[in-house]
Amino acid sequence: MSKYPDGEQSDKMTSKISSLLDNARSLADVFEVVKTAVYSTIHMSRGGLMLGLADLGNHPGRFFGAFYPVGTNIIVMNRTPLARIKETQPDLWRPYAFHVLLHEYLHTLGYLDENQVGRKVYDISETALGKDHPATQIAMDTVKFFPNLVYPNIAWQPENLDVELVEGFDRSSVSYIS
What we know:
Elements: H1 7-22, H2 27-42, E1 50-54, E2 66-67, E3 74-78, H3 79-88, H4 93-108, H5 114-129, H6 134-140, H7 146-149, E4 164-165
Parallel strand pairs: 1-3
Antiparallel strand pairs: 1-4, 2-3
Helix pairs in contact: 1-2, 2-4, 2-5, 4-5, 4-6, 5-6
């Protein structure tokens, strides 16, 4: 099942992290789960990050969930897919947010190659949440989830990037699962 921890310890970790994600109520809560999953699997962390929400447009047939400007301390997440998920399948909101934030968090840790990040997102999701968890399924085949992530047949691009910072996003008091 897991590439990193072994046996019963792995099952306990998967259960604990999955429960934390199920109980997350905000993007800041989801990000705490992301940091826990990353530290528990690849033993890396970084603090002092900010999250900005912005309308990054809609691109039917393509997906643009967030970006990380290299060398900064901000992740900018697209409001459009977040809104679309809440409208169409709110049960996917946490797994989707976990997936996007995990992807961008790995960029902040120095993983810049998109293919490598995609594989790491899947490996960490599978290890931390289990292969059947929706976040792991999104990591395995994001295209399958496109209908829930973009507005169909409506293409638009914002005129300017109006970024709203999420207060309390990166909490310094993190307790990682051992």
